[in-house]
Each structure stands twice: as structure tokens, then as C-alpha cells.
Specification:
Elements lengths: L1 E2 L1 H4 L4 H12 L6 E3 L2 H11 L5 E2 L2 E2 L3 H24 L5 E5 L6 E5 L3 H4 L3 E6 L1 H9 L3 E5 L1 E3 L6 E3 L2 H12 L3 E6 L5 E4 L2 E4 L2 E3 H10 L6 H11 L6 E6 L5 H6 L6 E4 L1
Helix pairs in contact: 3-4, 7-9
InterPro entries: AceGlu_kinase-like_sf, AcgluKinase_fam, ArgB, Asp/Glu/Uridylate_kinase
GO molecular function: acetylglutamate kinase activity
Function: Catalyzes the ATP-dependent phosphorylation of N-acetyl-L-glutamate.
């Protein structure tokens, strides 16, 4: 599951209750989270400038220090705390821990700096945490192959890579929108199912724009191997995770 940074603060306690309920039924959620708004706020307080190129944050070492501090520290621990309040067990870590996420510079690193594309995920480590009865909560900071250089990784991209390497069948993207919207007869409607080809058309036409582009691109990249579908849902919907798993037609399903 990918949990957006802007969504987190708005998630009701029942969302985490739902997660505990699922764990008791033997379904364990692996969470990869973002933290964009909190990172921007902290950068602003510290007077560090940072822009975006196609939804990716321009990252130098100074920005990376703040990214790591906010993601691995503040946000990661907040999610762990909220899960544990329900009585479930959670363990927070970042892609740096145990070489969990290895990365290389993105293709346009000349524009965005120290942003990474995932090359490897230590799936055994995640599986080990799950086997011990904990819900893994992962901050998307990665390491280069040599283990020296850190990279800021888009949370959607990181979640897609984790899902692929774990070999799960479904990835859920929890956001603050009800799914992929399309204007039909002047009204915005949620598309229940959309194919990879249709998404490419919607990006070209401008129906999908801004921060939704990296979301759907990561979803497309994730639909490989055993991952059959990605579901984009609004986290404030009651029992949203259970509804997704029961296939009650909530959100937008992205399929091959």
C-alpha cells in the first residue's frame, strides 16, 4: 500500500483499525509512505529552496537531509504510532536500513538531482518483519549500490517497486481523491476500471495531470510479474481497505 503524505494527516483512526482487523484475518499490509507537504513546510522554515519537475522534487544534499529527517523520522514514526494505538504491531524503517531499497539516479538527474529509481528491494527483510507479526512501514529513501549515496525516491515509484519485488497481486494507492477522474458531459466522474493504454491517452489529452502523473506511471510500472492491478482510493472512505479487498468497486482499478 502506498500512503500519500498529504493524505496521512486526514486519515481517520478507523483506517488503521481496518488495517488491524485485516492483520487478524491474516492479511498483512506493507506500507510505503510519502511526505511531500511536510517536507515542503520544513524546507520553507529552514529557508531551503526546492522546486518540482514533472512531479519530482529537485533534490540536492541539503534538501536530502530534510527529506530523510521528515520521512524517516517524523512521518514514519507517526504512522507506526497510529497503527500501534489500534493494538496492532508496526515496525518503521527506511530504504537505507538493511539495504532495503537500492537505487540509481533517474534518467533526468541533470534536472532533478539526487532522485533515485529503484534497482533492488530486499524482499526477504520485509518478509521477515511480516513473519514476526509486524506491519512494515517504509520511508522511500534509497541507497546507491556502493551504500554511500542516498537518494530521494518518489513514494509511488518506491511502492510500485516494493510490490513487484514482493510479488503481491495488488497494490493500493491511498490518496485524497476518489480515483482517476474524467470529465464526461461536463461532469467529473470516477473511472471504475482503466487500462494502461487508456492512461497513456489521458496523459496525452491532459485529463491526467500534475501529481497524478507519477502516481499512474508508478502504477503502470508496477503492473508486471505477479502484480495484476493497482487500485487508487480515497483514504477517508470508511473501511476502504476491506472494501478494496472484497472488490466492492471502490476507487479506480488500473489493469493491464
Amino acid at each position: 500500500m502506498k500512503c500519500g503524505g498529504s493524505t496521512l494527516a486526514a486519515l481517520p483512526a478507523s483506517f488503521f483499525e481496518d488495517m488491524r482487523q485485516l492483520q487478524e484475518e491474516g492479511i498483512v499490509t506493507v506500507i510505503v509512505h510519502g511526505g511531500g507537504p511536510a517536507i515542503s513546510e520544513t524546507l520553507g522554515k529552514l529557508g531551503i529552496e526546492s522546486g518540482f519537475v514533472n512531479g519530482l522534487r529537485v533534490t540536492n544534499e541539503a534538501v536530502l537531509d530534510v527529506v530523510e529527517m521528515v520521512l524517516s523520522g517524523q512521518i514514519n514514526k507517526e504512522i507506526v504510532r497510529r497503527i500501534q494505538l489500534t493494538g496492532a504491531a508496526a515496525l518503521g524503517l527506511s530504504g537505507v536500513d538493511g539495504h532495503l531499497i537500492e537505487a540509481k539516479p533517474v534518467a533526468n538527474s541533470h534536472e532533478v538531482g539526487l532522485v533515485g529509481d529503484v534497482t533492488k528491494v530486499n524482499a526477504e527483510l520485509i518478509q521477515g518483519i511480516v513473519n514476526m507479526g509486524y506491519i512494515p512501514v517504509i520511508a522511500p529513501v534509497g541507497l546507491g549500490e556502493d551504500g554511500g549515496q542516498r537518494y530521494n525516491i518518489n513514494a509511488d515509484t518506491a511502492a510500485g517497486a516494493v510490490a513487484s519485488h514482493l510479488g503481491v497481486e495488488q497494490m493500493v494507492v491511498v490518496t485524497d481523491v476518489p480515483g482517476i477522474m474524467k470529465t464526461v458531459d461536463g461532469e467529473k466522474q470516477v473511472l471504475p476500471v482503466v487500462s494502461v493504454a487508456e492512461i497513456e491517452e489521458m496523459i496525452a489529452s491532459g485529463d491526467i495531470y500534475g501529481g497524478m502523473i507519477p502516481k499512474v506511471r508508478a502504477a503502470i510500472a508496477c503492473i508486471q510479474g505477479k502484480v495484476q492491478e493497482v487500485v487508487i482510493v480515497n483514504g477517508s472512505e470508511p473501511n476502504v481497505l476491506s472494501k478494496v479487498l472484497k472488490g466492492t468497486g471502490i476507487g479506480t482499478r488500473i489493469v493491464r
